[in-house]
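hey m, so remember when u said the tokens were messed up on ur end? i reran from scratch. heres the input so u can diff it against urs
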Amino acid sequence: MWIKKAGGIFSFVVSGVLLSGCGSTMAVSEGSGNGMQTPSVTQSLAAMNWSLSTVQYGKSAPTANLKAGIPAKHYKLTFGEGAISLQGGCNTAGSSFKLSSPDKIATGQWMSTKKACMDISLMRADSEVTGLLSGVSNYQLNGQRLTLSGDGNALVFTGTATDATRYEGEGVRKFIEVRNTTKGLSWREATYDSRWIQNNKNAPWIQGNFPGIRDFKPETKMTYMVRINEFRDQNTGKPVWVKDMVIMQGIL
């Protein structure tokens, strides 16, 4: 059985999708005062997942730990069309951003989800990092190293290629239902109508031939609904499934 009703879960998911969709419509304005555009900077930022490596508070030495006691590497930035997102802590946060030549960056108001976590230090770290990002006014991009600075502080990020960069194309979002019993694993793709009601609940389960979902390992006697992004491996031509999030899970 499902631990939580699908309706409640999907109302949250739909809200998240709409929120990210609104952020992605914001236009990036970058370049100098004479209107020169430098889209390559935006493309370079969007091509990487940026993991926070060190923080420098004022004139103190850079540190790999936040004042809240949480390692800086918990946090990751991603850039989209005029939108910037922060993950890795208790909550997910986001803002708009604008670049201007030669090294200026401005972010809008940072908005965050309001989930409560047992780890209070992680919640404090969230506030600390968003506070630092709110004060950012300069950027320096050097290959896979990004430095954001402002108000006397500096955050250094290390970049790794996004899946879209790695597989040379945007992924296709899909929903995969997985059941893992003592007799083996079965799965099927779930589809939904415009009201987010599943319209193929009676679809047959597939035994075996499971492509696997990166970053997802189902436990025995559990059932899951996983939102994935499907990419195409340019070398083999085979699909690659990457977990976006586990929407629901339950005990069989």
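this time it looks ok to me. Residues 1-39 have pLDDT under 50 and may be disordered. if urs says something different then somethings off w ur setup not the seq
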